[in-house]
Amino acid sequence: SSGINAEYGDDDLNKLSARILKAELIGNTEKVARLTAKLEEMKQQQKSQPTGRRVREETVILTKTDAKGNARPVFLNSEQQDRGKKKKKRDKLSVTHAKDGERDRYFPDDDCKELTDLVREERTNSSLGQDHLFLKYASKLSKMSDKQDWTLDDMFVSNIAKVKDGSKDVDKLVAENQREHKRLESCTMCLEKCSRGCIVYIGRTLYIRVPPVKSLTNYHCQIIPVSHTIATVNGDEDFWSEFSVVKSLLVRKFAEKKLDAVFLEFASRLDQRRHVFVDCVPVPVEDATMLPAYFKKAILESDVEWAQNKKLVDTRGKNLRKCVPQGLPYFSVEFGVDGGFAHVIEEERLFKRYFGLEIIGGVLDSDVVLWRNPPKETGEGIRYKKQVFEKLAIEFPDV
């Protein structure tokens, strides 16, 4: 049993709640009762702790997220780690030339970086950062306009060569990680935050739920990664292995009902790191035969007219991870387990999130509300959809 003086945080309670949810779904009542009692004990001990002791210091790994949504750990030097020291009023210029007048460096950290560090910086920095740096230093060019031999290159060298206090960069990273933590805490698709009444299956790397809003068709479900993932192409081998098995089981079971499964994924706004999900929409066989032609035509006519990437990517007989590179927003539709089409989104504001559901709703002549802005489902409606889905008796793999 846990000690009286143990200190528990919200993360500990969330992890234990997730274990209780898994035990409830598999019907292990003994484990549910034991974990529920432990959860109540932890909550009581947390309430009994003094207010000053509830705030715990946590050691976190600072990460930097680029415009493509890729998060990488940040390596701080000794100067950036000493954030508590008093800042100097003026920047100190670094020595860029040797005593004989020969230039031996351009930037103050040239001699403390290896090739791997430079490659990492090149991959993490985006064109937006370069444009910001250019505008920042170009705006100061007017201060030196009285010197005839002063050029824009001199402005860049003189400003970048200054040894600046690294605490500002660390403050930005800390603020970014705090925003990321807040985003994860408010994510309703992470397993510990998802409504228990919607979930019909929990696997090792993914779970399946009925939509918490009005469904487009019968047996409509959503496949969601357990961990916070912004695109399925970012998933590891374990996720894709289980994802393929689950899709095959759904396609096989829907075929018995004379239905074809259509899988839709919309990965956009990657810099906001939204939790991705895959819609599985069963469609009658006679209507599903027309869907590939409709999707192909709609994708070719969507987005901007002049695209930098190939507008229509054929994924039939291929793996989506090999067709769409990581870090790019995309839309994907797959017809059963044979693949389908993918599209790299150029202008995200022109590509609507309900793009795929709109095409299926048009073929099925469904109400516009069901695919454009579906209303929230009632508790009774969610229970009914869950019972209907469970009657399919799909034998999902055991965890």
3D structure, described in words:
This protein is an alpha+beta fold and 399 residues long. Helix content is 40%, strand content 13%. It has 15 helices and 12 strands. The strands form 3 sheets. Strands 5-6-7-9-8-11-12-10 form an 8-stranded antiparallel β-sheet, with helices on both faces. Helix 1 packs antiparallel against helix 2 and helix 11 crosses helix 13.
**Cα-to-Cα separation, first versus last residue:** 27 Å
Cα gyration radius (Å): 27 Å
Amount of beta strand: 5-15%
Shape: globular
Class by SSE composition: alpha+beta
Q: How many strands appear in the DSSP assignment?
A: 12
The sequence of SSEs as H and E is HHHEEHEHHHEHEEEHEEHHEHEEHHH
What strand order characterises the main sheet?
5-6-7-9-8-11-12-10
Would you identify the regions where 5 or more consecutive residues have pLDDT less than 50? Answer: 1-5, 86-91
How many helical elements?
15
Biggest beta sheet attributes: 8 strands, antiparallel
The mean pLDDT is 78
User: Helix proportion of residues, in percent?
Assistant: 40-55%
